Amino acid sequence: MNNVRNKKRASKSLPFFFKEEFKVFFIIVLVSTFLLISTFTFDTVPPILNRGIQPATFPKGLLVLIITLTSVIYYLSLKKPWKKEKKLPKTFFLTILSFIFFILISKTLDFFLAISVLSIFVSYNWGEKRIFYLFLVGIIFPFIVFVFFEMVLGLRFPPGIITNLYYY
Amino acid sequence: MMAPLFSSKLLLVLLFGTLFGLVLGVLPGLGPTTGGALILPFTMTLDPLSAIVLLTSIYCAGTYGGAITAVLINTPGTPAAAATCLDGYPLAQKGEAGRALGMATVSSTVGGIFSVVILVFFAPILAKLAYEFGQPEYFALAIFGLTMLASIGEGSPIKNLIAGAFGILISTIGKDFMTSIDRFTYGINELSVGIGFIPVVVGLFAISEMLTQSTLLHQVFKRVALKAVKLPTKDDYKKTWKTILRSSGIGSFIGVLPAEGGTVASLIGYSEAKRFSKNQEEFGKGSIEGIAGAEAANNAATGGAMVPTLALGIPGSATTAVILTGLIIHGVRPGPDLFREQPDFLYGIFGAMLIANILFFIFGFFGAKLFARITLVPNKILWPMIFAVSVCGTYSLSQSILDVWIMLFFGVLGFFMRRYGFSVVPVIIGLILGELVEGTLRQSLVIFDGNWLMFLTRPIALTFFILSLIALAFPLLRSKKNKKVL
Hints:
- The complex is a heterodimer.
- The longest helix of chain A is centred in the middle third of the chain and has 23 residues, at about 55-80.
- Chain A contains 7 helices and no strands.
- Chain A starts with a helix and ends with a helix.
- Chain A folds into 2 domains: about 15-80; about 90-165.
- By secondary structure, chain A is an all-alpha fold.
- Chain B is mostly helical.
- Chain B has one domain (about 5-215, about 230-480).
- Helices cover about 70% and strands about 0% of the residues of chain B.
- Chain B contains 17 helices and 2 strands.
- In chain B, α5 runs parallel beside α17 (about 460-480).
- The termini of chain B are far apart.
């Protein structure tokens, strides 16, 4: 009972900037404000050539609308707080980490290798420990997909240490 | 109507599309939208009719496929099958999984065929009306579509509006189509052509779902045993025929409105079935009427959603947004001229939807047990494979590695949007309508010499603006009635 009371007290006393509603509001407004400011750097059409509105006017209007509506949902969340979400598990962060590896490897080494590494990394972290299945997911399947896309669509994948061997 | 379909190639495409759609529908997290987006690059190897037939058959069969998992493992294969879980699973738990799936199959087929009839009759009428539309009318119509999306879409209307506005904002990235001035490109040359539709769709649907699955690894599905799918009995038909017809009408109507098509239709179909039922106490405990109400409505929404897509070029759902992209990629411009210039093409699509509904009935009836086994593929193997296909599919359209990174970015964004109650469907609709909204607004202002009030002098545009205001006021009134915060 005491624990429940303490938890309730703790969540009530949480400063507003730690609450999820505020974080969402803050991020949307921050990004929108940055984009809004950047619209002022767009080139403008000289008045003599201008037909209708300037190219920056429409995105400006949209950004103002987004900021206004976000403020409204934040105001409403003060009356009725959002449902508290569960903490994200370790596997989620490992999956995000695999995306970063994917970008780094595809940029520096090889596109095929990046897909293989991500597939094995994700599959392993999600609980697959059997070598055959890791091999299937990380090597055999991506290879089939690669060959299929190349043959059916005549696609040329970006050069890299393994892809070059294939094309050679 | 069916003549163009009597070629072995098209029948093969239809067969493949229906089977592929069923597989997509059965797998929770995937669905016709993601599947359609992933298969879009392959449609480049087909002629336009085959390509659209493939996409529409995936749409019809995928919508039905969701019911199989809803009944057997209490997890909707697609969001449109969420209402089917409410009675499908309890009935299956009573040892009547075959009866539940039989009713889902029959009502889905009836709903789907009903909506094709609506499509055949109403799309040409709407297309004729569209001849009266100029730039201001199209602008007002697009605004009406977006407000409807906010109003009757799932979740908070304000969050839906924000998501829709965000989708339109994405469409402004790149060179301005009237002046060629760069917007939001930040010196990245590849962004000058704008952000493609496929990276955004695959990211928001497939990659964000992969992230969602990474948080649900400990979830254990309990599968109910299924011996065989049973056709409904005479008594079942007596109980449900009115519900099936009503839900077919509701689904077709909701489908025409730009929203989350099948999802909203099935929820309304289900609640109306309950309202009119003499056995309301059975709902939630395995009511056969509940299954019929939800399934007839979600499949009826497929034909309904194709009406504005083909007649006006305005998608009625996220999957029809993918179909619309397919049409544009193949050089087919939806709208009134399509009905005048290429009737064979259109009737080919109508016929294909009709046959797809019959095919999924046959496959569903005889193969549901087999399709249910697909759910046994563990996530730790399935999702890395889906990732490989997503990456190659996204890369293939413009052979750009930037597109793959954009897909990953939207995947992460989509995950957090869903986590905090923002639906991703309005982003897709906003993205596809963005150019239409901005283009028609700016061209209207040129026609009106910059006078915004001139919009009010056009009766059709004014009607759409009034309807938009009503659509926006509707959730407000509803929340006041229910004393609920938006």
